[in-house]
Amino acid sequence: MAAVRTGLLAAVATWAIVVLPALVGWIAAPESSLGWFTAVSVGSALWFVGHGQTVVGDGVAVSVTPVLLLLLDVYVTARFARRLFATQREVLPASRVDRTLARVLVPGFVGGYVIAAAVIGLLTLGGPVGPGLLAVAGAALVPLAAVGALLLRPDDDDAPGFVRAWFRRGPTWLPAVWRIGWRGAGVLLLVGAAVVVARVVLTVGSVVSMQADYRVNVVGAAVLVAGQLLMLGNAATWALGFVAGPGFSLAAGSVVSPVAADPGLNPAVPLLAALPEQAAYPPVLLAVVLLPVLVGALLGRWVDAALEFFGNTRARFTAVATAAALAVVVVLALTALANGALGVERLAAVGVPLAPFAPALLAEVVGGACLWVGVALLRERRAERDAAAATDGRGDADDGAVDDGDD
User: Fold this and answer.
1) Alpha-carbon torsion 361, 365, 366, 367, what sign?
2) What angle do CA 9, 12, 16 make, to 5 degrees?
3) How far is CA 39 from the centre of its chain?
4) Nearest to 346 by CA among 269, 249, 274
5) 148: three-class secondary structure by DSSP
6) Quick one: 287 exposed, middle or buried, by C-beta within 10 A (0-12, 13-18, 19+)?
7) 143 or 386: which carries more pLDDT confidence?
8) DSSP for 201-254?
9) C-alpha to C-alpha distance for 379 and 371, rounded to whole angstroms
10) What φ, ψ does residue 62 adopt, rounded to 5°?
């Protein structure tokens, strides 16, 4: 029961993250004719959206997951799960910890979370939008991700024995590569976020002007800004689509890529004022694809610094390629969640086209990692030749000195 109760509390905590601002926004808009329960209903629907689920109302579907909200939910849920696991480790015999964790604590925690999701789903009844039954079960994405983030750590002393056994079945370098791959995913997202921030700074006047057009009070403006900040994670994945080459679209028929920009007609969201105007770009802008390549090279450097391969070139290339591929897979998963629908017709498909994006980003990041190893090998072999030549030179000099002595 402790696991189920903790799962319920974790869900309530993540629900409060979105419902409380919704209520604040309702209070700050006294001219609204909607009741407080509608604000709770909308906030509850947003809770499901933040869990990677789709909500529908009046034939309009919303399936774009706010990535930062999702990550925040996972973090909060992981804090609850960590406390649960730590408490149970203190009271259980060491021989029973792993079995209880796998058979009782994890299922109970996730089950409690899903039970809370069912209750939250009931709160959307009568509101303008709501989830389906599949969305209630799909909300388990957050507790599963939180539990995975806690347990799938092969280098952690608190990791379950069965997790460490799984990783021991693979190559010896797998635990280190696993850690570096996740770190690389974070670096890729930071690259995308840096591009977004740079663009917003360059167009801050247009963004602020559109924000002022809403004519809301201070509290309403704060809620509006917070909502846009939650979408910065999505914008980071879309910016990665730009730097990888395929680009992204925010409306049907629109595209923003290193080749050209045609953003089309978009919603009056202040953050979208940072989008470039319609234009064709010079070929030199394609150099932005070097950013993922540099991230791949950084991953290769990290792998080389963390591991010693003792001359096994094949294992070295495999390790760096695995780390790079893991980073790309994580980014692709978040990008798939960041994509989706914000409405119908022009807003039915928002985000990065995954079909060209996936192979392009994979080739660039893995290529950069392998390029690092290739250059490192050339340097090492050159250093070995120089050392061998220096040794031969000293040997010849020593032989000459002996010969002179004999003469």
Assistant:
1) positive
2) 140
3) 29
4) 249
5) helix
6) exposed
7) 143
8) HHTHHHHHHHHHTT---HHHHHHHHHHHHHTHHHHHHHHHHHHHSS-BBSSTT-
9) 12
10) -125, 115
Under the banding of pLDDT at 50, 70 and 90, the label for residue 317 is very high
Task: Say how far apart CA 327 and CA 296 lie, in whole Å.
Answer: 9
Cβ neighbors of 93 (< 8 A, separation 6 or more) are none
Tell me, what amino acid is at 362? Answer: L
pLDDT digits (tens, 9 = 90+) for 255-281: 899 999 988 777 777 888 888 888 999
| Structure tokens, 22 | 């919704």
CB atoms inside a 10 Å sphere around CB 400:
10
Q: In what order do the strands lie in the sheet with 279-280?
A: 255-256, 260-262, 279-280
Q: How far apart are CA 228 and CA 235, in angstroms?
A: 10
Spatial CA neighbour of 365 closest among 323, 305, 313, 303: 323
Q: Is the pLDDT of residue 407 over 50?
A: no
Q: Which residue has the tokens 């080459």?
A: 245
Tell me the pLDDT tens digit for each residue of 215-262. 767 777 777 788 888 889 999 999 999 999 999 998 777 889 999 998
Tell me: the pLDDT tens digits for 321-343? 999 999 999 999 999 999 988 87
Q: Is pTM, for the whole model, over 0.85?
A: yes
Q: Are 369 and 323 in contact (CB under 8 A)?
A: yes
